[in-house]
């Protein structure tokens, strides 16, 4: 004995309603009636002029779009090139900074070794250098 489920009942009641709505002729719909009324009000020449104007605007926008895409591609390529140049210069500057730091470190080591080996000469030279600095500051 087959029991009827509530789902089967709803399907059976909805089916005739769907069949009734699909049998409606397209000319009988409210949207078609509204369009027919507007068609009677509007001047056909003005509508054609509007359509031509819209097509012209679309063509101009398409041309503008192509130009903008070309500009985008060119600026993207230029950005990539400039970015690579910037990275190369940054690497070069970092290398130069490391070289200068290395040179200063070697000079400090040499000064320390000279001060240890010849303390009198270094002390005399530092006094002379200090006098030159103070004279430059006074000028």
Q: In terms of topology, how is this protein built?
A:
Layout: H1 6-22, H2 30-41, H3 44-117, H4 119-138
Helix pairs in contact: 3-4
Structure, described:
The chain is mostly helical and 139 residues long. It has helices at residues 6-22, 30-41, 44-117, 119-138. Helix 3 (44-117) packs across helix 4. The longest helix has 74 residues, at 44-117.
As a percent range, the share of helical residues equals over 70%
Measured by DSSP, the beta-strand proportion falls in: under 5%
Measured distance between first and last alpha carbons: 119 Å
Q: Overall mean pLDDT score?
A: 82
Order of helices and strands: HHHH
Structural class: mainly alpha
- Shape label: rod-shaped
How would you characterize the largest beta sheet?
none
Number of helices: 4
Radius of gyration based on Cα positions:
45 Å
Low-confidence stretches: none
Query: Strand tally, please?
Result: 0
Q: What does this entry show, briefly?
A:
The protein has 4 helices and no strands. It is mainly α.
